[in-house]
From TrEMBL:
InterPro entries, alphabetized: AAA+_ATPase, AAA_lid_NorR, Homeodomain-like_sf, HTH_Fis, P-loop_NTPase, PAS, PAS-like_dom_sf, PAS_fold
Highest taxon above the source species: Bacteria
Name of protein: PAS modulated sigma54 specific transcriptional regulator, Fis family
Pfam families named among the record's database cross-references: AAA_lid_14 (PF25601), HTH_8 (PF02954), PAS (PF00989), Sigma54_activat (PF00158)
All residue ranges annotated as the PAS domain in the record: 7-84
Residue ranges occupied by any Sigma-54 factor interaction domain in the UniProt entry: 152-382
Region (Disordered): 405-433
UniProt GO molecular function: ATP binding; sequence-specific DNA binding
Record's keyword terms, sorted: ATP-binding, Nucleotide-binding, Transcription, Transcription regulation
Keyword match ATP-binding: yes
Length: 482
């Protein structure tokens, strides 16, 4: 931790210029730096703080636990000097190991957060929510969650650049091609582009071209008229292209689309019209196409397995999602997010990963990318009975898998310091686009935390949150908190 303390006066000057309370601890949990804003809150002098263990100075802290686990804890409720505050706890990685952690007081009063929530809810535009399936009969096309671009999690330079380019793509009407290995989150990014575009109030229709047999793909995409074939639905059925009118059509695994269907898709993109199977009427369609693939389309074009003219139509804006093994600095953040989400979904108390587990997961190659990470977290949460997940809790098949597919070194080399991400908002990213949804999520988490700490006593919870009891009842009813 000598490197962190070496900058001395410069670091102290920067920290003391900030309004948020900030504290820095080393690998043993001892305080090596603290700014004036935090000292003022604690009503302590700097000389009485530096060098002491953080638990001796700051009540209810978990910074020492973050050092142990390497898992960031964002937007957490912490009671300090009889006040509930919102804090971030962020590990500092160097050479593949956690060398310290930084704690940031985001809100020194819950009332400040409520004021921001109220302002955002007043001024933020209505965010479209996931739409229940109506005309579509296939669950594969149902949008279950309205993702935003910030929901594509990560703090690596590659992900920051990807989100920046995705926001630019959202502001244009042109086609987007998303490439990346299976499980990297291509549909999450596609939904984010849709719901931050001027088509956000229109439908988002998702079609997995690899999951539909070639013989059925045409009817699925273009629809059919009554009597088009034996067993055709009376009155016909609109296709997914038609249903995407005034919205976005997302064609996943487009590299698996047969050549005959590629020619018909190209005609739709050129004419902006669609004709159902067995029909004679051409219907106007106004849609934005986003496609995705894990295949090498350039090679497929060279080999004659993908139409060159369609390729150029699709490849106007190209977004490539790097595999998880190439952005390992994102793994702790992803683990923290999906660990909390899985615990909540399975009705389990909040769990944490030991530092040995995090190091082992950082060394793993993740051939299944984020999808595999989510699956592994679900397995661990389901099997572990304690609050801390240790290597002994891994089932034998996961032990074997981690040994076989791990790289020699778990080292990560962040392109930017984790401390640079101290400001973004809780859990899923910084407020901004999708602020209304995100702040409502934060509001729900804070109320639930206050109710837990108050033993379910709503009067006491309202007092802790600094709001009137009737206001809390209204919030509980509005947010559907049981």
């Amino acid at each position: 931790m000598h490197e962190l303390a070496a900058s001395g006066d410069v670091l102290r000057l920067i920290l003391d210029s900030m309004y948020e309370g900030i504290v820095l601890v080393d690998a043993k949990g001892h305080i090596v730096e603290i700014n004036q804003a935090y000292l003022k809150l604690l009503n302590m002098e700097r000389d009485r703080v530096i060098g002491r263990h953080v638990t001796e100075v700051i009540e209810n802290t978990r910074l020492h636990r973050v050092v142990e686990t390497g898992i960031p804890e964002r937007g957490q409720l912490q009671r300090i000097r009889q006040h509930d505050m919102v804090v971030h706890r962020i590990p500092i990685w160097q050479g593949g190991k956690v060398v310290g952690a930084i704690g940031v007081l985001i809100f020194e009063s819950i009332r400040d957060l409520y004021e921001i929530i109220e302002r955002l809810q007043e001024h933020a535009p209505q965010v479209p929510s996931a739409r229940p399936e109506t005309e579509q009969g296939s669950e594969a096309h149902q949008v279950r969650w309205a993702y935003r671009i910030d929901d594509f999690l990560g703090q690596s330079r590659a992900v920051l650049d990807l989100r920046r380019m995705a926001r630019k793509a959202a502001q244009t009407p042109v086609t987007v091609l998303i490439t990346g290995e299976s499980g990297t989150g291509k549909e999450v990014l596609a939904q984010g582009i849709h719901f931050e575009s001027n088509r956000a109030n229109g439908p988002f229709i998702s079609v997995n071209c690899a999951a539909i047999p070639d013989s059925l793909l045409e009817a699925e995409l273009f629809g059919y008229d009554e009597g088009a074939f034996t067993g055709a639905k009376r009155g016909g059925k609109p296709g997914q292209i038609e249903l995407a009118h005034m919205g976005t059509l997302f064609l996943d695994e487009i590299g698996d689309m047969p050549l005959s269907m590629q020619a018909k898709l190209l005609r739709v993109l050129e004419d902006r019209q669609v004709q159902r199977v067995g029909g004679t009427v051409k219907r106007e369609v106004n849609l934005r196409l986003i496609s995705a693939t894990n295949r090498d389309l350039e090679r497929m074009v060279e080999e004659g397995r993908f139409r060159e003219d369609l390729y150029y139509r699709l490849n106007i804006i190209r977004l490539h999602i790097p595999p998880l093994r190439e952005r390992k600095e994102d793994i702790p953040l992803l683990l923290a997010h999906y660990l909390d989400m899985t615990c909540e979904r399975l009705g389990k108390p909040r769990m944490h990963l030991s530092s040995e587990v995090v190091e082992r997961l950082l060394a793993y190659d993740w051939p299944g990318n984020v999808r595999e990470l989510v699956h592994m977290v679900e397995v661990l949460v389901s099997l572990c009975d304690s609050a801390y997940v240790r290597l002994d809790d891994f089932p034998p098949h996961l032990h074997k898998l981690l040994q076989e597919r791990s790289s020699r070194s778990p080292a990560i080399t962040p392109s930017r310091s984790p401390a640079c991400d101290a400001v973004p908002g809780p859990a899923v990213g910084s407020p901004g686009a999708g602020a209304r949804e995100r702040m409502m999520q934060v509001e729900r988490e804070l109320i639930e935390a206050a109710l837990r700490e108050s033993g379910g006593n709503k009067s006491l919870a309202a007092k802790r949150l600094g709001v009137h009891r009737s206001t809390l009842y209204d919030k509980i009813k509005k947010l559907g908190i049981l």
